[in-house]
Design a protein that fits this description.
The strands form seven sheets. Strands 1, 8, 9, 10, 11, 12 and 13 form a seven-stranded antiparallel sheet that branches. The chain has a five-stranded parallel sheet with strand order 16-15-18-19-20, sandwiched between helices. Helix content is about 35%, strand content about 25%.
Length: about 525
């Protein structure tokens, strides 16, 4: 899920007709002073960071003058909060508060529908409030076909003790809040506190929205960089990985960097998982063996070989990786030979120079293991492949032994794309380009590319492979990027086939060799 900052969430609320304090986000102390001067009174200066209990962490300051607002901003900007560096503060008018409420919405997986929660007691620690004042909290499941009705919202307000004008105000706020939360496809949203001011206005004093990651593409106005819920801004590699994922919905590709600062004697693993539970089990085995883990990656849900390829390339591009490990549940329903071909091409293109152990159990695992083991010798480092009957602990032990016995080769450049004498090319759905050198294809005896092409879109025209669909059909998805055209051609044919799979941001940084 994608988190929004408070100032972004309040912009959504204002668009939906709810009251928020006057103010705006700033990035410099001088801007903070100007906003405070425009407000013309006491202000609150809030660090914009994805953490809870900001007041307790001294991330919220009160200022009576523009000069004090500037000083508060100077103190907060650049402050390190866990993994988050504060680069924006919100400067708002200080409210005269008469009473606090809590208003929230979650998508309840058990009920399979949104649930609105209203509490007559607001403030930090809503869970504790629920324990201490159960009579002050009301819940209402919402039928998504009709939304939160005025009647249901009034009943919520009545159950927390509101009457008269206050009941009407809370009813209106709850209905508008639900509409805007649904409009932006929030998985969860809360206004805490929702306050009644001394001049009898209902105002959202603080709020938080979390948007469904699969809905982010429908809301470009939110400016969400990456549809992931983290406690910090995305790293450059996470941005590159997200660009791969958001443009290709075939299967899942999740990339998260865990650590970047390692001691010289740490042995760091680039981790590649397949399925959440199985990945955790394999990571635990690596940690028990003393490895440090640089990243978490999940490629599951039957991704194409090209997505596995890009995941592996991104993992290997991290500045400090001493080993590569892939491990999942061992019972995955996806066709593992696709993943194996994606890994082999990535290892060849990057010229793998760290030992790798691949535990690749699931459909077609025997073929996948054979594809991986066959690739040894096509790059400097050794690769060992195992199936579901080999335990994560045993695979972690093998990786440790390989690391101990391997000395990285020196000055190994990445592989460059060959220059075809008689090129025959077509494009793929993710911007890739497949090229056959018909000068080499004529002398190929196996015609492995045609025989192993999974979607069977290749035929022989004389002695050379050509499409049996149009180039437009191939580009629209007729070519599924199974990578057999290159991987099988490399090991079983005459090496006349090559697929270039660009990775925006990565190729530019490391040189466009592929």
């Amino acid at each position: 899920m994608a988190r929004l900052h408070e100032y972004q969430s309040k912009a959504i609320l204002r668009a939906g007709g709810l009251n928020t304090p006057r103010g705006r986000p700033v990035t410099t102390p001088d801007e903070a002073a100007r906003v405070a001067a425009e407000i013309g009174g006491a202000v609150v200066v809030k660090a914009q960071a994805w953490v809870t209990s900001r007041a307790a962490k001294k991330l919220i300051w009160f200022a009576d003058t523009p000069e004090a607002a500037a000083e508060a901003a100077r103190t907060l900007l650049g402050q390190q909060v866990g993994n988050f560096t504060v680069d924006t503060v919100l400067v708002e008018e200080r409210l005269a508060i008469s009473r606090e409420f809590y208003l929230g919405m979650i998508v309840d997986d058990r009920e399979r529908r949104p649930v609105i929660i209203l509490s007559g007691v607001g403030g930090s620690g809503i869970e504790e409030i629920a324990r201490q004042h159960p009579d002050k909290i009301a819940r209402q499941s919402v039928d998504i076909t009709r939304g939160l009705t005025d009647y249901e919202a009034r009943e919520l307000a009545r159950r927390v003790g509101a009457r008269g004008a206050l009941m009407n105000q809370l009813t209106q706020a709850a209905v508008r809040f639900y509409k805007v939360a649904r409009q932006y496809e929030a998985r969860s949203a809360e206004i805490n506190p929702l306050v009644l001011t001394e001049d009898n206005q209902i105002v959202a004093a603080d709020c938080r929205f979390t948007v469904d990651d699969y809905a982010v593409f429908r809301h470009p106005d939110l400016g969400i960089e990456i549809a992931r819920e983290t406690d910090r801004p995305p790293t450059p590699l996470e941005r590159i990985a997200w660009d791969v994922e958001k443009g290709d919905y075939r299967g899942t590709f999740y990339f998260l960097q865990l650590e970047t600062d390692f001691a010289p004697d740490d042995v760091v693993v680039g981790f590649h998982g397949s399925g959440g539970g199985g990945s955790m089990m394999n990571m635990d085995a690596l940690l028990r063996r003393g490895f440090k883990i640089a990243n978490f990656v999940d490629t599951s849900g039957n991704p194409p070989a090209s997505k596995v390829y890009r995941a592996a390339r991104i993992i290997l591009s991290q500045p400090r990786v001493d080993a590569y490990y892939l491990g999942g549940s061992g019972v995955a329903s996806q066709e593992q030979f696709h993943s194996a071909r994606g890994l082999v091409k990535a290892f060849m293109d990057a010229q793998l120079n760290v030992p790798a152990v691949i535990r690749i159990g699931g459909n077609g695992e025997e073929q996948a293991v054979e594809i991986l083991e066959r690739a040894n010798g096509a790059f400097p480092a050794p690769v060992e492949a195992y199936g579901r009957d080999d335990s994560p602990d045993a695979c972690a032990d093998r990786l440790a032994a390989l690391v101990e016995g391997y000395t990285p080769a020196e000055n190994v450049p990445p592989r460059t794309a060959p220059q075809a004498q008689e090129p025959y090319s077509f494009e793929t759905v993710t911007g890739g380009t497949i090229t056959y050198d018909h000068a080499l294809c004529r002398d190929c005896e196996s015609k492995a590319c045609v025989n192993t092409c999974v979607p069977q879109i290749l035929s022989l025209e004389g002695d050379v492979p050509v499409l049996n669909i149009t180039r437009d059909e191939a580009k629209r998805g007729g070519c599924i990027e199974c990578l057999a055209c290159e991987v099988e051609c490399h090991f079983l044919g005459n090496r006349g086939g090559f697929i270039r799979l660009p990775i925006a941001g990565l190729d530019e940084e490391h040189g466009d060799h592929h």
